[in-house]
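Fold it.
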Amino acid sequence: MVSAVRTVVGDVEPERLGVCDAHDHLFFGSPQLPGQELRDVSAARAELAAFRAQGGHSVVQWTPYGLGRRAADLPPLSRETGVLVVAATGLHQAAHYDDRTLRGLRGRLAELFVAELTDGIGTSGVRAGLIKVAGGFHALDAHARWTMTAAAEAHHATGAPIAVHLELGTGALDVLELLCGELGVAPYRVILGHLNRSPDFVAHRQAAASGCYLAFDGPSRANHATDWRMPDAVRALAEAGHGDRLLLGGDTTTAAARSVNGGPGMPYLLRRVRPRLAAELGADLVERIMGENPGRALGVEWH
């Protein structure tokens, strides 16, 4: 079988992703962020167009089950803007759902993930291209273990990569011990997100040594120690020989953060972050991080 990235308009060769925002959101809504839902299709279109105008070619939406993915809207947005979009299945932390929703998923979570990866999300026919789950702060609670166990089962059934929200950037080694140790997922099929939020360079290197992918996402969030420490963290990993495992993303989760509303949004990743990293690391490495690594991280020989 040939490796392919599963986008909302069909499977494509990994190299077709081009310049990729490896973690972002076109649509997202959670009770944890009341009044800041990303629901507006016109705003999503404008954000994609602004990203495209800065030289962007693809966006990976990490919005999982139950948080307003609007899967049916993704293919027309992709076609209208010329930006490839990858959708996600999966489940976020328990705090993002009500008890009734979680009870309804008991005993069928892995089955749901597999169905959304192979048949499509709901009645949209849009197939997910990755599984998104989440850890806790420096630990894995019962919910995280449940969702990651289901994600591993779905991975083994389909080959799909697993992307992990690390709470404030912590718990990377616990996640790898569970997914890759206990549950048998190959490290190169795991993407760890939000490592910029915890600038622990030793933990970063330890995680990278496993062979997983490391995502530095959510630029311009000063309270997460992102912009001012992220270049140092990326440089340290590159100098340690892990440049081929690094990913960059914007992680726009609120309406206020969108560029169309005066925030940094998706274009910031290319407008400000890319040139800063290029000045410190060299344009060739940054081009590989944004243009080659995402294709390898998301390219799958689908079962």
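The CA atoms of residues 89 and 113 lie 6 Å apart.
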